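User: quick one, fold this
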Amino acid sequence: MFFKREELEKFIEEDIPYFDLTSFSLGIEEGEARISYFTRENCIVSGSEEVKGIFEILGIEVENFVRSGSEVEEGTELISGLGNVQNVQYAWKVGQNLLDNSCGIATKTRKLVNLLKNNGFNIPILTTRKVFPGTKKQVTKAILMGGAVPHRMGLSETILVFDQHKEFLGGIENFVKKLDMVKLKCCEKKIVVEVKDFEEARILARAGIDGLQFDKVKASELEELIKELRLINPSIIILAAGGINENNILEYARTGANGLVTTAMYHAKPIDIGVKIKEV
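Assistant:
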């Protein structure tokens, strides 16, 4: 994941808009210090490259460094560096916030991925774009490090038709009439429609839709429907979405869906990242 220098500078500026009043008041401004980030839990690392970039901006020389995607045990030092004591204070909380949230999302993602893999399912976990504005890059990197794949990064890259679009089309029959035109216009894209109504799903399958996304349909109901839809259209892509988490992901995996769409990892508990700062 590529972060521009200006983006990392904004992270710093957000926490230090003018100067560090505490360090200034205490006279902690001169001298050298060592800063070290370590994990108090087993985790999947994410965000360490961004902290490294923040170190470089602040003139902190990197010592030890663990790459994102690494699986580490409790007590592991993730990144450390030497620099001016004031700049080390500047880096402190920005780096910690990046690591604990990113590692938390990556770790929960890996748990979900392993839950499927360890039970014999080779099904991708797809993540939605329901992230807090301003965090998409960090969150996307974290889920990639955990082993999931973004469902869609934004409105510009995929065609996913919701009820909010159908509202302006005058019903599913009118959408079906437009389907060939849409396929012609966007010949390199797959056209996916989110559905809840089973009869609507059958109509779309017969019309040759590329994919269907079922939202909040019970796994027990979805399993039989998927078998029926594949008899109608063997190449159709089926996605299950809505409320999928570690408690029911195996049920949805058994339905035969091609992919499972979830936001569960975005609500992961942050990893407990500790910080040590010592005078050199």
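User: anything notable?
Assistant: The longest helix spans residues 85-118.
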